[in-house]
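fyi for ur records
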Amino acid sequence: MHTTHKRFRAALLCGLALGLLAGPATASGGTPFNFTILHTSYVDGRVEPNADGGGGFARFKTLFDQVRSQNSVNATLVINPYNFLGTETFFQVFRATSKLTNYTNEVGFDFLGMGAGELFYGPDTLNNFLTNCTATMVATNIDVKASHALASRIKSSVTKSVFIGGVERKIGIVGRAEESICSRATCGLVVVTKEAIGAISSAVASLRASGVDLVIMHSSAGISADTTLAAAVNGIDVIISNDMSMSNTIAGAAGPYPRTVLSPSGKPVIIVSTFETTSYIGQLRIQVNPSTGTVTFLEGDSRFLAPCANDAAPTSNCTAQNTAIAASIAADSLTIASQLDIVIGWNTNTLPGDTHMMCRDGECALGNLVADAMRWQMNGACDIAFVNGGSIRAPLQAGNVTQRLINQVIPFANTISTFILQGSVLLDTFQYSTALIGRNPAPSGTGRFFQVSGMKSIINTANPDGAKLVRLQVQNRFKQFEDVNPNQLYYCCTNDFERRGGDGYTMLLNKAAQVDDNGPPLVSAIQAYIMQYTPVAFALEGRISIVNQTNTPPVVGTTCQYAQTLSAESGSFVDFCSFSNATRTATSVTLTLALPSTKRSFKLNLSGITLSGADLLTVRAANASTPLQYFVDGEYQPASFTAVSGLPSFDLTFISNSAQIQFVSSSAISDAHGLAMNYVSSPFCPAGFVLGSGSQCSPCGLGTYSIAGDTDCTACLPGYISTTLGSKNCTVCPNGFYQPESAQSRCLEATGGRVTPSPTRAVCLDGYLFNIDNGLCVPEQERNVGVTAVFVAFTAVFVIMIGLFAFSLYRHSNLKVFKGASPIFLNLILVGTLIALGSCFATFSEVTEASCAVRQWFFHLGFALAFGSLYLKVQRISIIVNIKSSRILNLKDTQLLYKLGLMMLLMSIYLIIWTAVNAPVPEVFFNSDEYYYVCSDSWWSHALLIVELLLMLTGVYLAYRVRNAPAGFNEAKLVGFSVYNWLTLAVVLNIVRLTTTPTLDAKSALEALNVFLTSFVMVCVLFIPKIYMVVTGRGNEIQWSSNTVVPGPSNVVMHKSALAPTGTTTPESPRSFKMTGAQATSQATYVDATTVAGTAMGDELDDDDSSDKSSDRSSNRSSASTVTQLRAELEQLKAENQALRTRIQELDGGRAIQVCVQGSEVAATSTTDEGATRV
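which gave:
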């Protein structure tokens, strides 16, 4: 044991030593730590300071170094989430070199996000920048596997380990790229976007599983999209976003710094963004608690990197430039100036550009210049030209025009593309171009709007998005404008970015013919045009007219694609494209219902079109991908309709106050046909619904209904049902069906011959009742008259026999065969049996409440009187036979009668209470295909049967104990047999009655037999042997049991005088004799109390002589005084017991004189009219 402890301590010390040598511990919990994030936005490839003198990479270097030195190098990360590359002049000139890469490394950026600017010049330029770049670009929802080079340089997530205070902390980084990046940049086949929320959620879950302490996401999708993501994804702590100027101190900021959003798990997510210029930088300081997984904002804000203006003592509000980087940037600027600051022409008017959004929501003079320059440069290769307003990035100031200015106006390396479009496709192209015009505020995507040359258009902003172009004209060879002919071909030119599908122009990518994307650079065309026509003086010419008019149908080519918002409480809509004169082959209509917040539901009716082919009409929740559910036939169904299902012909009810109805069709829809819709909203839940928890409308359950505006569901009345959830009303059960209860969902069929006089009940015809077991109306079972007559006759016969027994008892009551059996109890047994037989008449009569009560009363009272008397006789025998003491015991008939009376009283009280509380009543009993009435059973009857059973069991037990007792006339055996018979037959017959389903006659017969074979059989057993003895003339002769031999001493005188005190005399009577040798037998005419059974049962063996009875009573009264003398005599008798036994057996061949001998005691028993006294 000691060796084991030593080894354990050694191993423990070894482990501690190795842990110390291994270095800092990794964190999987632990104490909180502070962390700083510096973030920029929209560098756009600019390294030099801005026009306001602030910012620039030289100041970045100074600030980054200062913060890192204050927080320790590893407690700070520098992140740019959006457009690190872009269109600034520096990057235009040096994009083919590694200059920007070198500056990025020297300044110390850690992570970069992917925006459209990263791909303005294509994937190759991005790959060139990332080569040897120390900053890591993270784009979780971007797939670049098609490019091995980019795939090795762009990561989906990163885990960065830093040591803070000697403890390793793991920082997880994910990056979100805007999903529309490829519509605004040149992705080619290399870059593919993925759904952001799913990709980010999966990556964050993996990082959390790896044990990171902090998860940071940078994003180029914008603050709105990032707020939505933060509320949908667990595990993100901080989001570095873009497109919102956050600050708590800078004037003109769009919002406070930071914004906090709760994740689905309830943890706060910190979102920050700074100004989109290199003059500003955001600085965020947080505290991370690894134990709780929470991040707390400590301090932070956006900061202007102000110049120090060569002040010898700069204030803390300015940021000095790093001298080495500033010098290098200055040298590069000289190179740029030598190439670009050459005057090529003169501009008479200042032409607004991107700064004022003039070229994205209407005609702009600078757009006219660029479009005209394209058409002029191609020298007749195109009849019309159009260029997206988003490609014009800066105004052109009045005065000298240099190459630098032209590069700022068009900073992209686009070429001019030429191609042919059919007129219908040209209409689709410009309908898409104008879709977002007139929206305020202007949404993302307005840069697709075309500036034109050789064309005119009219745009109606009152029309929905996608249907705003109401007229489009082109200039013919006669310089006249004519409407576009959908079937004519047009020669067009635009920049190669748009022709390749940029900004969502899929029709230019897929439907253009004779395409040539390798025209001259657009910048060169503008330069040549200005040099050719200098001075240039462009102005607005009415090429694009914008109106706001109602009922102006759009022009439609092959496609009708638009969106419209409806906010009125109710209204109608007719497809705008149905008014056009063209036949469309593709349709995409999106209608947004934005109802007041007070509305809870709306009804929608759709018509006007027939769905065919792959047509699809869907009603969705706003900004959701899954269909809304409408309620029909008690079920929620998705509101998605195809050519198979067709449009519903009924009103659709939706529990919502907003929806998007989208109809997409690739089938031809002819003139004057289009989607039509009517809708009406309500502040109430619709019919069939009520307001539930959470202020949501919930459908009424089965068996209930509601009307519009109800606050609670109402139960359907009996006879009415509602079979579906959300029922508006209840329907009545049809003929042949019924429902007796309320709030039910189905009617019950009236089967088995039943009829329905009302919808609430089904009944059988008169004389029939419905049997649930077999589902049939069955007739009442009639009694068999013959069976009834037989049993009634038997009952009558038994009553007569009881009368004969009573008469015989009365006539011969002086005979010993009756007197020795307690005549009073024999009479009571007869009365009890007669009462019990009375229940048989009730059994075979009509079942009514009265007959049920009479049957129970007669049967149980008869049992109590008859069996109670029998039980008391057995009890008295048992007591007399089994008492071995020499004390005097009196068991008079009056005592037994008192007990019997008590039993009858208790039984009567029980029956009275039973009748008052739960009297048996007639109830229907079905037997196969018939029914009859029986008296109901209850625990009252069961309890009484149990008590009676216990009484019978006790009687059996007592009878068994006295089975061998000396008995004159075999009375003990007859009583015992009666008790056994009663118990056995009562149990068997009741089991049969309760466990079988007999017919009415059989059931009545069983109940009658229960009386016949118990009480009446008992009477027969007790009386018939006695009557037989009387008839044969032996009514006064005692019949001893053959096994009874009780010896006694030869000189014992068994006479009442033996119990009298010394010196007294008692008159002789025939009951006394002296046992003297051989005379014992011959003189034994009768011995008083010679039958133990007769004694125990109070046998009345005395003559009617009154003086004799008086003498007996006198003798009993004096018996107590002789107890002491008798005890002495008994001792002497014990000694002579054996000799006496032998002598008596020798006399008369073994005939015995009946003397009760128990053990070593010899007992004499005297019977008087008062009862039995045993000494």
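DSSP finds 27 helices and 57 strands in the chain. thats all i got for now
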